[in-house]
C-alpha cells in the first residue's frame, strides 16, 4: 500500500470517528435531564421565561434539526457560541485547551523517556530481579487510582515538605509556564501512571523482540550488546511502541479531568464539567471534537511511524 | 523517507558507557532544574503583604464582573465588593447602603428611593437616580438571573424624580419590597452598561485585573464607607473544597470560603489556621420536603408523623459532623422576624407510629441526592428512623448535577430532599412559597397564597411582622417541610486575617484587617 493511500484512508477514518464523536456527545447531553435555558436561569425564573429562553436559543426545535444545524456550521469552521458566556466556543476553549496541552505534552514526554527506559531495562532480562522489581512497582502504580496518587503527592511535597505548591494557581493573564512549579505535581501524577502502564507494554514488546531469531543471531555473531539492542532489537519494537504512546496520549488527556480537579489546574476539565452541568452543547462539542482530533492525529502518526519502521510494510518510492 | 542513520547509530553504540552517563546526568539535571525553579517560584508568590488572597467555589460559571449573571460563591463576593447595593443583609440585619431612604406610598404599591449624594463610580461619575433606575430595569429582565426577585416591579414605569430620587411602581401592593426585593439583590451600576467587563461599580474595591480564574481588586481611597484597610483582594475560583483547604495550608491563599465538615475536623487543633463558623446567617437549611397537594402528604397526619419520626440531633451529628444545629421546620432561624413560638420538635416514635397507622401509610419514597455534603448520609439515617416508626423509606437517588434540572419533577414529586439558603422568614416565604415560585416543593395551597399576599400588603411594619409571624406559625404547625437541620458554612483562614464579616451571605473584606 502506498503511503499516500494509507494517509488518505486514515484521514477518511478520522473524519468518520470525529463525526461519530460529535453525534455521541450530542445524544449524551440530550438524554441528561434539563437544558441550557434552565441551567442559566436557575431557580429565579418562571416557566414562561424558561419557554421564552428556549425559543430564543432554538431549544424548542427537534433534536435532529439542532444537531444538523450545528453540524452544518461546524464543518465550515464555526463551532458556535456558548449559551452561558455568549462567547465564541473557539475563544472560550482556546486557553484551557492550550493549558491542558502543555500539561499533557510534558507528562507525555516524561512518560515516553522513562517508560522506554523501564521497558528496555526490564524487557532485556525478563524474570530478572530488576524486571520483577520494575514490573511489580508498575503494577502497584497502575492499580492505585490517580486521585489517590495526586493526594499523596500533595501531602508529601506540599503539606509536609513544603517544596511544591498544592494547587496550580496561574498568575493573572499568564500561563502555567510562567510558574513552572505548578506543573510539577500534576505532571508527576499523570506521568506516574503513563510510565507504569506504557512501560509494561514496552517491556513486553522488548521481551518479544529479544527472543527473535535475528537478535539471537546478532549476539551469536559477536556484536557488542549495545549494538545488538540499538540496531536489531529496538527497531523491531517501534510499531508496537508507537501504538502504545498513541494510546498514552489519549489516556493522558482523559486523566486530566481528575488531575486538573485535584490541583485546580486551569485546563479543560472545569470547562467540560461546566459545559455538562449547564448543557452548554456548543462548548462540549467543541472540546470533544478538538480532543478527538488531537487523539486521531496521534494514532495517525503512530500508524505512519509503525509503517515506516517496519521493513515489510515500508514502500520505497520507485 | 526517514531511516536510522547508520553513522549516528554507530557513534552512539561505539561509546555506550559515555552515552549512558550523559543520559543519566541529563535526567538528574532536568529534575534538579525543575525542582529548583519550582521552589523559587513557590517562594516568589508569597512576596506581597498588603493583600488578602481568597478562594471560593462558584456555580454560575462567571467571574462576578457581570452582576446580572452572578450567583453564589466567588461571583457573588466579587459583586459585593465592586458594586454598592441599595440595601443589604449585614450581620443579620437589613441595612441601607446606597439608599438613604426607601419609603412606600399609602397603598405600598409605589416606593420612593432616595440615594446618597456622595457615592461615586470607579470611573469618577457620580451615582445618580438614573443609574439606579437602569440597574433595576436590567435586573428585572432577562438575561438577568434575578428576574423572579423583581417580578412584582413595574420596571418600565420607574420614574426619576431628581438626581437622587426615583419612584418604583409595583404591579401589586408589596409592603415587604425592602426585605423581599432590595435586600435580596440590588447592586447598582452605571446607566447604559451593556459590557460589564470593566466591572465599574461604586463599591469599596475597583477592578484591577482578572482572567477566568482570578479577579484582583484594589481598594478605593475615599470611598463613602471609608477607605478599606486592605489594599488588595485577590479572589480565585477553586471549585473543590479539598483543594481550597490545601491551598490555605500551603499558604497559597489566606482565606478559604467554604470547607467541608471533614476538612474542618482535620484542622480544629491547628494553631496556624482559624476556623470561621458563619452560624445561622450563612447556613443552609436542610429539608425533606413534603408536597401537601400530593398523596400521601395531603393528609396532615402524615406530615406530622414524618416530622415526629425524625431525630434531628442525630441527623445533624451524623450528616453534618456537628457543624450545624437542629432546625424547626421553618426557614429563618436566628434571623430577623423569626417567630418565637417555633421550637424544634422532639422525636416521638410512638406518636409517629400511631399517626402513620391511622393514615394507613407503610411505605414512602424519598427523592434524594448528594446536593449538599452529608445529604445522603442524612437520608440513610432517616430511613432507619422511619423504620423504627413502622414505615419503610425507599431512597430514589438522583445525581446532584441533574437534581434541579427537571423543574417538572421538582414540582410533582411528593417527597424529596431539598435545601434553602437560610434567609429571614419573610424573605423566604415571599420568595419560595408563593404561587409563582418554580420550586414550590412543599405544595403550598391557594388559601396560603391569599394569606401571604394579604400580609405582603400591610404597610405598618409591626403589623406586617405580626402577620408573617402567623404565617410562620401556620407553616410550623402543618407546612410541608421537615426542616431537620442547619448546615453551617465553615470558612478557614490564616490567623492574621481579621474583621471579616458576613454581608449578603458572603464574607465581606471591606473592613478586614491584617495582623
UniProtKB/TrEMBL annotation, chain A:
It is a multi-pass membrane protein. GO terms for cellular component: plasma membrane. InterPro entries: BPD_transp_1_N (IPR045621), MetI-like (IPR000515), MetI-like_sf (IPR035906). The chain crosses the membrane at residues 12-32, 97-124, 136-161, 181-199, 244-263, 283-309. The lineage of its organism: Bacteria, Bacillati, Actinomycetota, Actinomycetes, Glycomycetales. Pfam families: BPD_transp_1 (PF00528), BPD_transp_1_N (PF19300). Residues 97-302 form the ABC transmembrane type-1 domain. Its main location: membrane. Keywords: Cell membrane, Membrane, Transmembrane, Transmembrane helix, Transport. The keyword Membrane applies. Belongs to the binding-protein-dependent transport system permease family. GO terms for biological process: transmembrane transport. CDD domains: TM_PBP2. It comes from the Bacteria. This is Peptide/nickel transport system permease protein. The keyword Cell membrane applies. It is found in: Cell membrane.
Amino acid at each position: 500500500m502506498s503511503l499516500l493511500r494509507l494517509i488518505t484512508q486514515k484521514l477518511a477514518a478520522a473524519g468518520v470517528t470525529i463525526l461519530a464523536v460529535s453525534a455521541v456527545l450530542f445524544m449524551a447531553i440530550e438524554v441528561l435531564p434539563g437544558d441550557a435555558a434552565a441551567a442559566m436561569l436557575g431557580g429565579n425564573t418562571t416557566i414562561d421565561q424558561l419557554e421564552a429562553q428556549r425559543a430564543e436559543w432554538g431549544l424548542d426545535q427537534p433534536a435532529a434539526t439542532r444537531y444538523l444545524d450545528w453540524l452544518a456550521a461546524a464543518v465550515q469552521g464555526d463551532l458556535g457560541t456558548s449559551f452561558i458566556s455568549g462567547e465564541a466556543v473557539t475563544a472560550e476553549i482556546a486557553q484551557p485547551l492550550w493549558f491542558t496541552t502543555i500539561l499533557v505534552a510534558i507528562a507525555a514526554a516524561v512518560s515516553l523517556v522513562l517508560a522506554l527506559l523501564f521497558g528496555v531495562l526490564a524487557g532485556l532480562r525478563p524474570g530478572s530481579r530488576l524486571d520483577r522489581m520494575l514490573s511489580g512497582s508498575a503494577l502497584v502504580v497502575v492499580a492505585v487510582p490517580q486521585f489517590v496518587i495526586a493526594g499523596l503527592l500533595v501531602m508529601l511535597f506540599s503539606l509536609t515538605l513544603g517544596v511544591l505548591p498544592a494547587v496550580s494557581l496561574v498568575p493573572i493573564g499568564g500561563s502555567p509556564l510562567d510558574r513552572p512549579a505548578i506543573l510539577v505535581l500534576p505532571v508527576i501524577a499523570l506521568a506516574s501512571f503513563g510510565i507504569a502502564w506504557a512501560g509494561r507494554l514496552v517491556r513486553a514488546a522488548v521481551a518479544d523482540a529479544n527472543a527473535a531469531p535475528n537478535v539471537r543471531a546478532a549476539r551469536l555473531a559477536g556484536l557488542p550488546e549495545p549494538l545488538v539492542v540499538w540496531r536489531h532489537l529496538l527497531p523491531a519494537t517501534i510499531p508496537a511502541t508507537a501504538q502504545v504512546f498513541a494510546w498514552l496520549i489519549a489516556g493522558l488527556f482523559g486523566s486530566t479531568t481528575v488531575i486538573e480537579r485535584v490541583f485546580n489546574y486551569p485546563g479543560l476539565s472545569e470547562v467540560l464539567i461546566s459545559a455538562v452541568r449547564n448543557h452548554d452543547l456548543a462548548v462540549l462539542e467543541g472540546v470533544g471534537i478538538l480532543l478527538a482530533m488531537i487523539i486521531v492525529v496521534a494514532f495517525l502518526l503512530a500508524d505512519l511511524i509503525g509503517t515506516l519502521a517496519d521493513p515489510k510494510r515500508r514502500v520505497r518510492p520507485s | 523517507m526517514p531511516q536510522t542513520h547508520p553513522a549516528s547509530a554507530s557513534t552512539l553504540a561505539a561509546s555506550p558507557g559515555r552515552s549512558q552517563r550523559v543520559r543519566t546526568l541529563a535526567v538528574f539535571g532536568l529534575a534538579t532544574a525543575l525542582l529548583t525553579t519550582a521552589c523559587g517560584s513557590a517562594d516568589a508568590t508569597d512576596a506581597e503583604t498588603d493583600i488578602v488572597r481568597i478562594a471560593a467555589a462558584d456555580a454560575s460559571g462567571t467571574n462576578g464582573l457581570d452582576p446580572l449573571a452572578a450567583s453564589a460563591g466567588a461571583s457573588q463576593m466579587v459583586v459585593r465588593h465592586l458594586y454598592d447595593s441599595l440595601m443589604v443583609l449585614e450581620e443579620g440585619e437589613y441595612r441601607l447602603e446606597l439608599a438613604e431612604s426607601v419609603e412606600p406610598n399609602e397603598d405600598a404599591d409605589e416606593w420612593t428611593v432616595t440615594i446618597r449624594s456622595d457615592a461615586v463610580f470607579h470611573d469618577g461619575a457620580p451615582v445618580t437616580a438614573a443609574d439606579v433606575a437602569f440597574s433595576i430595569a436590567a435586573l428585572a429582565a432577562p438575561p438577568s438571573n434575578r428576574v423572579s426577585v423583581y417580578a412584582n416591579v413595574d420596571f418600565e414605569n420607574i420614574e426619576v424624580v431628581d438626581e437622587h430620587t426615583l419612584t418604583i411602581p409595583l404591579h401589586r401592593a408589596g409592603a415587604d419590597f425592602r426585605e423581599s426585593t432590595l435586600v435580596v439583590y440590588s447592586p447598582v451600576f452605571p446607566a447604559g452598561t451593556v459590557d460589564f467587563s470593566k466591572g465599574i461599580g461604586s463599591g469599596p474595591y475597583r477592578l484591577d485585573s482578572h482572567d477566568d480564574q482570578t479577579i484582583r481588586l484594589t481598594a478605593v481611597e475615599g470611598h463613602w464607607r471609608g477607605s478599606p484597610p486592605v489594599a488588595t483582594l485577590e479572589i480565585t475560583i477553586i471549585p473543590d473544597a479539598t483543594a481550597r483547604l490545601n491551598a490555605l495550608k500551603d499558604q497559597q491563599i489566606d482565606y478559604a470560603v467554604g470547607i467541608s465538615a471533614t476538612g474542618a475536623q482535620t484542622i480544629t487543633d491547628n494553631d496556624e489556621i482559624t476556623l470561621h463558623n458563619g452560624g445561622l446567617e450563612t447556613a443552609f437549611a436542610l429539608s425533606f420536603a413534603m408536597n401537601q397537594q400530593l398523596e400521601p402528604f395531603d393528609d396532615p397526619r402524615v406530615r406530622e408523623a414524618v416530622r415526629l419520626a425524625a431525630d434531628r440531633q442525630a441527623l445533624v451529628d451524623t450528616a453534618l459532623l456537628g457543624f450545624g444545629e437542629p432546625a424547626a421546620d421553618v426557614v429563618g432561624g436566628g434571623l430577623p422576624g423569626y417567630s418565637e413560638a417555633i421550637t424544634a420538635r422532639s422525636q416521638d416514635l410512638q406518636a409517629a407510629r400511631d399517626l402513620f397507622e391511622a393514615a394507613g401509610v407503610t411505605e414512602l419514597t424519598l427523592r434524594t441526592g448528594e446536593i449538599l455534603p452529608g445529604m445522603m448520609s442524612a437520608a440513610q439515617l432517616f430511613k432507619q428512623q422511619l423504620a423504627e416508626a413502622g414505615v419503610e423509606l425507599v431512597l430514589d437517588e438522583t445525581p446532584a448535577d441533574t437534581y434541579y434540572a427537571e423543574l417538572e419533577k421538582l414540582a410533582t414529586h411528593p417527597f424529596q430532599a431539598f435545601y434553602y439558603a437560610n434567609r429571614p422568614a419573610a424573605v423566604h416565604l415571599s420568595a419560595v412559597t408563593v404561587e409563582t415560585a418554580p420550586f414550590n416543593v412543599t405544595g403550598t395551597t391557594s388559601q396560603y397564597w391569599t394569606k401571604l399576599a394579604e400580609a405582603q400588603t400591610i404597610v405598618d411594619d409591626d403589623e406586617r411582622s405580626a402577620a408573617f409571624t402567623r404565617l410562620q406559625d401556620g407553616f410550623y404547625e402543618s407546612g410541608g417541610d421537615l426542616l431537620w437541620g442547619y448546615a453551617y458554612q465553615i470558612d478557614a483562614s490564616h490567623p492574621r486575617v481579621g474583621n471579616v464579616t458576613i454581608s449578603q451571605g458572603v464574607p465581606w473584606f471591606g473592613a478586614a484587617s491584617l495582623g
